[in-house]
């Protein structure tokens, strides 16, 4: 389990479907180490704090393994890490193996899995495809959010040490499905 890439970004306003939309979905890779703070990563901001960010959604994680699926689904689309708005692109972690409440030491920080990411229209904006939120949903490749329990430096290449795991808790995948079954 490792951190392959770290991305941050600041909100920007773009035109889409005849409207000006402010979004923080556009992320760029970070070189070196940055601080993971309780509300976000150093240099990162969210645009709409009613649905993104805050203590329970300080860091968004997306597995690198999902990129091969999306490359087949979206041929000809360039997909650098961070394309889905994630802060952390990982290897060896997925929605089935990670449970809500799992705690990890990542570099100098301790973080806890809080919830799956639910798709929103800004995925459509990012990919210039109105069908993208639905495709994202149907795929089940949602990624997950982390709360920063102990602040510390993180960087690409850091391992993930699992500090706490409870099989009785829902996996991220189970949690994601439960939202849409009710």
Structural key phrases:
catalytic activity; 18% helix; M1 Pyruvate Kinase, Domain 3; MOSC domain containing protein; molybdenum ion binding
Brief summary of the model shown:
The chain has a single domain, classed as M1 Pyruvate Kinase, Domain 3, CATH 2.40.33.20. The chain is 18% helix and 32% strand.
Describe the protein in words.
By secondary structure, the protein is an alpha+beta fold. It has one domain: M1 Pyruvate Kinase, Domain 3. Helix content is 18%, strand content 32%. It has an 8-stranded mixed beta sheet with strand order 4-1-7-6-10-9-8-12. It has a two-stranded antiparallel sheet with strand order 2-3. The protein has a two-stranded antiparallel ribbon with strand order 5-11. It is globular.
């Amino acid at each position: 389990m490792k951190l392959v890439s770290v991305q941050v970004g600041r909100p920007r306003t773009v035109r889409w479907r005849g409207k000006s939309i402010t979004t923080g979905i556009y992320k760029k890779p970070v070189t070196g180490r940055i601080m993971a703070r309780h509300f976000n990563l150093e240099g990162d901001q969210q645009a709409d704090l009613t649905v993104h960010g805050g203590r329970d959604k300080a860091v968004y994680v997306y597995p690198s393994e999902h990129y091969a699926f999306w490359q087949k689904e979206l041929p000809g689309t360039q997909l650098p890490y961070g394309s889905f708005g994630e802060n952390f692109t990982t290897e060896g972690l997925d929605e089935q193996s990670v449970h809500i409440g799992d705690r990890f030491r990542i570099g100098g920080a301790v973080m806890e899995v809080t919830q799956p990411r639910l798709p929103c229209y800004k995925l459509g904006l990012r990919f210039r495809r109105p069908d993208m939120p639905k495709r994202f949903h149907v795929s089940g490749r949602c990624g997950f959010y982390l709360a920063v329990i102990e602040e510390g430096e993180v960087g690409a290449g850091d391992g993930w040490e699992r500090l706490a795991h409870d099989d009785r808790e829902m996996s991220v995948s189970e949690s994601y499905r439960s939202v849409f079954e009710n």
